[in-house]
Amino acid sequence: MEVVDDDRVITTKRAQVRQILERRIREELHAGDALESERELVGQLGVSRVTIRQAIADLVEAGLLEKTQGKGTFVTGPRINSRLHLMSFSREMRARGLKPRTQVLSAAEEPASEEVAERLRIAPGDQVVRLERLRTADGTPMAHEVGWYPSALFPGLLQHNLAAVYDLMVERYGLDATHGEQSVSAEAADMDSARILGIARRAPLLVQERLTFADQTPVEFSLSRYRADRYRIHSTLLPRAQARAEDAAEHPTMGS
């Protein structure tokens, strides 16, 4: 389909191109398919490269396309809807029919910073295990996670498989994660997160900060940075009386 040049403003051409490309994405292409090059689209649609570039940028921002440096522009997969509850990444991905994978990027013992010590209710300088991991779903990078675990509660933790920490907590240390406190914020990806997640620097991220308890004992403090183009948070708002009743009735548990 050709976009006819006339006296309309550039934004109208941009909107036309965006609509054409969006229709192709939804009706003809699949997740992982490559979009034609800018030069090919210029020839097909009869508009300037600037207009093509702007329309593609709109679709990247909308989460329908993603740019991979040196490779091109690709159709994204569907976003994962995550509820605000205590469920592990692996269990959540499996529940959605996706294959989760955890790659341990680094693991070491270090003195707790003041912030980490305050969250874990230990003294600054006490030893903690710092664990950095990359989470993927069907091979797509989803989250960059850093967690801290009190060494006093988990002696010898570094000797074990750290892909499934919650399983270790229960099976090796007899600590079952019973509940947690979590907050969600937004930030732009820095160079480190962009490199690990395979996204552009300053791309939007959802940041989940979580403090996990075994009964009343903090066992984990974690920061997880999720790709905003692949992940979104879903919550159900309840009347206060119903929410209090449900909170009193149950404490959700965490999986591996």
From TrEMBL:
Pfam families: GntR, UTRA. The keyword Transcription applies. The keyword Transcription regulation applies. Residues 11-78 form the HTH gntR-type domain. GO terms for biological process: negative regulation of DNA-templated transcription. GO terms for molecular function: DNA binding; DNA-binding transcription factor activity. Keywords: DNA-binding, Transcription, Transcription regulation. It comes from the Bacteria. This is GntR family transcriptional regulator.
